[in-house]
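Morning run. Coffee first, then this:
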Amino acid sequence: MAILQNKVAVVTGGGQGVGAGIAFALAAEGAIVAVLGRTLATLEATCSEIHRRGGEAQAFVCDVTVAEDIDAAVLEIVDEFGGVDILVNNAQIVPLGNLLEINEDEYLDGMDSGPLAALRFMKACYPFLRGDGSIVNVGSSAAMRSDSSGFGAYAAAKEATRALSRAAACEWGDDNIRVNCIMPLAMSPAMSRWVESGGDDVEDFLNTVPLGRVGDCEEDVGRVVVFLCGPDAAYITGHTLPVDGGQAFLR
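And here it is:
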Protein backbone atom coordinates (compact mmCIF):
# COMPACT_ATOMS: atom_id res chain seq x y z
CA MET A 1 0.00 0.00 0.00
CA ALA A 2 1.27 3.51 -0.81
CA ILE A 3 2.63 5.08 2.37
CA LEU A 4 0.82 8.40 1.90
CA GLN A 5 -2.47 7.00 0.66
CA ASN A 6 -5.25 9.63 0.78
CA LYS A 7 -3.08 12.18 2.61
CA VAL A 8 -3.74 15.72 1.39
CA ALA A 9 -0.50 17.50 0.49
CA VAL A 10 -0.05 21.19 -0.28
CA VAL A 11 2.99 22.04 -2.41
CA THR A 12 3.79 25.67 -3.15
CA GLY A 13 5.74 26.56 -6.27
CA GLY A 14 4.62 23.26 -7.73
CA GLY A 15 4.54 24.26 -11.39
CA GLN A 16 8.12 23.32 -12.22
CA GLY A 17 11.49 22.26 -10.91
CA VAL A 18 11.84 21.11 -7.33
CA GLY A 19 8.18 21.80 -6.52
CA ALA A 20 6.94 19.70 -9.42
CA GLY A 21 9.36 16.90 -8.52
CA ILE A 22 8.09 16.89 -4.94
CA ALA A 23 4.47 16.86 -6.16
CA PHE A 24 5.19 13.88 -8.45
CA ALA A 25 6.86 11.93 -5.64
CA LEU A 26 4.07 12.60 -3.13
CA ALA A 27 1.39 11.63 -5.65
CA ALA A 28 3.26 8.42 -6.49
CA GLU A 29 2.85 7.40 -2.84
CA GLY A 30 -0.89 8.01 -2.87
CA ALA A 31 -1.12 11.60 -1.68
CA ILE A 32 -3.77 13.93 -3.09
CA VAL A 33 -1.67 16.92 -4.13
CA ALA A 34 -2.81 20.54 -4.15
CA VAL A 35 -0.34 22.22 -6.52
CA LEU A 36 0.00 25.95 -5.82
CA GLY A 37 1.65 28.76 -7.75
CA ARG A 38 1.08 31.92 -9.73
CA THR A 39 0.90 30.50 -13.25
CA LEU A 40 -2.08 28.27 -14.03
CA ALA A 41 -0.54 26.74 -17.14
CA THR A 42 2.48 25.33 -15.32
CA LEU A 43 0.35 24.12 -12.42
CA GLU A 44 -1.96 22.32 -14.83
CA ALA A 45 1.04 20.73 -16.54
CA THR A 46 2.18 19.27 -13.22
CA CYS A 47 -1.34 18.04 -12.45
CA SER A 48 -1.73 16.54 -15.94
CA GLU A 49 1.45 14.51 -15.49
CA ILE A 50 0.24 13.28 -12.10
CA HIS A 51 -3.11 12.30 -13.64
CA ARG A 52 -1.30 10.52 -16.50
CA ARG A 53 0.51 8.42 -13.92
CA GLY A 54 -2.74 7.57 -12.16
CA GLY A 55 -2.47 10.02 -9.27
CA GLU A 56 -4.73 12.77 -7.99
CA ALA A 57 -3.90 16.46 -8.06
CA GLN A 58 -5.56 19.83 -8.49
CA ALA A 59 -4.16 23.26 -9.37
CA PHE A 60 -4.76 26.28 -7.14
CA VAL A 61 -3.58 29.70 -8.30
CA CYS A 62 -2.00 31.52 -5.38
CA ASP A 63 0.48 34.36 -5.05
CA VAL A 64 2.38 33.42 -1.89
CA THR A 65 3.33 37.04 -1.28
CA VAL A 66 -0.34 37.94 -0.74
CA ALA A 67 -1.73 36.95 2.67
CA GLU A 68 -5.32 36.89 1.41
CA ASP A 69 -4.36 34.47 -1.38
CA ILE A 70 -2.82 32.09 1.14
CA ASP A 71 -5.84 32.07 3.45
CA ALA A 72 -8.24 31.66 0.51
CA ALA A 73 -6.21 28.82 -1.02
CA VAL A 74 -6.02 26.86 2.24
CA LEU A 75 -9.76 27.22 2.83
CA GLU A 76 -10.47 26.13 -0.76
CA ILE A 77 -8.22 23.09 -0.39
CA VAL A 78 -9.85 22.10 2.90
CA ASP A 79 -13.30 22.56 1.37
CA GLU A 80 -12.32 20.43 -1.63
CA PHE A 81 -10.40 17.63 0.12
CA GLY A 82 -11.48 17.79 3.75
CA GLY A 83 -8.21 18.83 5.35
CA VAL A 84 -4.44 19.18 5.06
CA ASP A 85 -1.97 16.51 6.19
CA ILE A 86 1.26 17.66 4.53
CA LEU A 87 2.58 21.14 3.79
CA VAL A 88 5.62 21.74 1.60
CA ASN A 89 6.78 25.36 1.43
CA ASN A 90 8.88 25.45 -1.72
CA ALA A 91 7.97 28.73 -3.46
CA GLN A 92 10.69 31.38 -3.36
CA ILE A 93 11.61 34.48 -5.32
CA VAL A 94 15.41 34.35 -5.61
CA PRO A 95 17.16 37.69 -5.01
CA LEU A 96 20.73 37.37 -6.30
CA GLY A 97 23.47 39.96 -6.43
CA ASN A 98 26.13 41.55 -4.27
CA LEU A 99 24.90 43.40 -1.22
CA LEU A 100 25.69 46.80 -2.71
CA GLU A 101 23.62 45.90 -5.78
CA ILE A 102 20.52 44.42 -4.16
CA ASN A 103 17.82 47.00 -3.53
CA GLU A 104 15.33 46.83 -0.68
CA ASP A 105 12.43 45.80 -2.91
CA GLU A 106 14.39 42.78 -4.17
CA TYR A 107 15.40 41.88 -0.63
CA LEU A 108 11.82 42.14 0.58
CA ASP A 109 10.59 40.03 -2.34
CA GLY A 110 12.86 37.25 -1.10
CA MET A 111 11.60 37.59 2.45
CA ASP A 112 7.93 37.91 1.51
CA SER A 113 7.95 34.89 -0.81
CA GLY A 114 10.13 32.75 1.46
CA PRO A 115 9.99 32.91 5.27
CA LEU A 116 6.93 35.17 5.54
CA ALA A 117 4.93 33.03 3.12
CA ALA A 118 6.08 29.87 4.92
CA LEU A 119 4.98 31.30 8.26
CA ARG A 120 1.61 32.31 6.85
CA PHE A 121 1.02 28.88 5.34
CA MET A 122 2.11 27.10 8.52
CA LYS A 123 -0.28 29.18 10.62
CA ALA A 124 -3.14 28.78 8.13
CA CYS A 125 -2.66 25.00 7.95
CA TYR A 126 -1.95 24.49 11.66
CA PRO A 127 -5.53 23.65 12.73
CA PHE A 128 -5.71 20.90 10.10
CA LEU A 129 -2.20 19.50 10.67
CA ARG A 130 -2.76 18.90 14.38
CA GLY A 131 -2.69 15.22 15.30
CA ASP A 132 -0.46 13.76 12.59
CA GLY A 133 0.71 16.51 10.25
CA SER A 134 4.05 17.08 8.58
CA ILE A 135 5.68 20.22 7.25
CA VAL A 136 8.74 20.30 5.01
CA ASN A 137 10.24 23.70 4.29
CA VAL A 138 12.73 24.08 1.47
CA GLY A 139 15.92 25.82 2.56
CA SER A 140 19.23 26.23 0.81
CA SER A 141 22.91 25.62 1.44
CA ALA A 142 23.66 29.13 0.08
CA ALA A 143 24.59 30.28 3.58
CA MET A 144 26.98 27.33 3.93
CA ARG A 145 29.12 28.32 0.96
CA SER A 146 32.74 29.19 1.74
CA ASP A 147 32.21 32.25 -0.47
CA SER A 148 28.60 33.43 -0.34
CA SER A 149 29.25 36.53 -2.45
CA GLY A 150 26.17 37.32 -4.50
CA PHE A 151 23.97 35.03 -2.41
CA GLY A 152 23.55 37.13 0.74
CA ALA A 153 19.91 38.20 0.31
CA TYR A 154 18.82 34.75 -0.86
CA ALA A 155 20.72 33.04 1.95
CA ALA A 156 19.16 35.40 4.50
CA ALA A 157 15.66 34.42 3.36
CA LYS A 158 16.44 30.71 3.45
CA GLU A 159 18.11 30.87 6.85
CA ALA A 160 15.06 32.71 8.21
CA THR A 161 12.92 29.85 6.90
CA ARG A 162 15.16 27.37 8.72
CA ALA A 163 14.86 29.32 11.97
CA LEU A 164 11.07 29.40 11.74
CA SER A 165 11.02 25.68 11.03
CA ARG A 166 12.99 24.85 14.15
CA ALA A 167 10.74 27.06 16.27
CA ALA A 168 7.59 25.47 14.85
CA ALA A 169 8.97 21.99 15.50
CA CYS A 170 9.60 22.88 19.14
CA GLU A 171 6.30 24.70 19.68
CA TRP A 172 4.07 22.23 17.85
CA GLY A 173 5.59 18.94 18.97
CA ASP A 174 2.80 18.50 21.52
CA ASP A 175 0.35 18.74 18.62
CA ASN A 176 2.21 15.92 16.84
CA ILE A 177 3.10 18.21 13.94
CA ARG A 178 6.58 17.47 12.63
CA VAL A 179 8.54 20.24 10.91
CA ASN A 180 11.76 19.71 8.98
CA CYS A 181 13.84 21.46 6.33
CA ILE A 182 15.67 20.19 3.29
CA MET A 183 18.50 21.93 1.45
CA PRO A 184 18.36 20.56 -2.09
CA LEU A 185 20.77 20.74 -5.00
CA ALA A 186 18.51 19.87 -7.91
CA MET A 187 18.26 20.11 -11.67
CA SER A 188 15.73 22.92 -11.82
CA PRO A 189 15.11 24.53 -15.22
CA ALA A 190 17.60 27.32 -14.42
CA MET A 191 20.21 24.86 -13.15
CA SER A 192 19.70 22.67 -16.20
CA ARG A 193 20.33 25.57 -18.58
CA TRP A 194 23.49 26.52 -16.70
CA VAL A 195 24.87 22.97 -16.61
CA GLU A 196 24.12 22.50 -20.30
CA SER A 197 26.08 25.67 -21.08
CA GLY A 198 29.18 23.62 -20.35
CA GLY A 199 31.32 26.46 -19.04
CA ASP A 200 34.49 25.89 -17.03
CA ASP A 201 32.67 27.06 -13.91
CA VAL A 202 30.22 24.15 -14.28
CA GLU A 203 33.01 21.60 -13.91
CA ASP A 204 34.46 23.52 -10.98
CA PHE A 205 31.04 23.53 -9.33
CA LEU A 206 30.46 19.80 -9.83
CA ASN A 207 33.87 19.13 -8.30
CA THR A 208 32.47 20.53 -5.04
CA VAL A 209 29.80 17.79 -4.99
CA PRO A 210 31.20 14.50 -3.66
CA LEU A 211 28.70 12.48 -5.71
CA GLY A 212 29.64 14.52 -8.77
CA ARG A 213 26.18 15.36 -10.09
CA VAL A 214 23.18 17.59 -9.60
CA GLY A 215 20.19 15.80 -8.11
CA ASP A 216 16.95 14.88 -9.85
CA CYS A 217 13.97 16.93 -8.63
CA GLU A 218 11.72 13.90 -8.21
CA GLU A 219 13.92 10.88 -7.56
CA ASP A 220 16.54 12.55 -5.36
CA VAL A 221 14.61 15.40 -3.71
CA GLY A 222 10.97 14.36 -3.92
CA ARG A 223 11.64 10.93 -2.45
CA VAL A 224 13.33 12.50 0.57
CA VAL A 225 10.22 14.62 1.16
CA VAL A 226 8.13 11.45 0.95
CA PHE A 227 10.34 9.90 3.63
CA LEU A 228 10.10 12.94 5.91
CA CYS A 229 6.30 12.97 5.59
CA GLY A 230 5.91 9.22 5.98
CA PRO A 231 5.75 6.83 8.95
CA ASP A 232 9.46 5.95 8.85
CA ALA A 233 10.29 9.53 9.89
CA ALA A 234 7.74 9.66 12.72
CA TYR A 235 10.49 10.51 15.25
CA ILE A 236 12.27 13.15 13.16
CA THR A 237 11.46 16.83 13.64
CA GLY A 238 13.27 20.14 13.88
CA HIS A 239 16.11 19.10 11.59
CA THR A 240 17.66 20.26 8.34
CA LEU A 241 18.67 17.60 5.85
CA PRO A 242 21.01 18.52 3.00
CA VAL A 243 19.91 16.72 -0.18
CA ASP A 244 22.85 17.78 -2.29
CA GLY A 245 25.20 14.91 -2.98
CA GLY A 246 27.33 15.85 0.03
CA GLN A 247 28.13 19.42 -1.00
CA ALA A 248 27.04 21.15 2.20
CA PHE A 249 28.40 20.24 5.60
CA LEU A 250 26.30 21.20 8.61
CA ARG A 251 28.39 21.59 11.75
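Strands lie at 8-12, 32-37, 56-61, 86-89, 133-138, 177-184, 240-243. Good start to the day.
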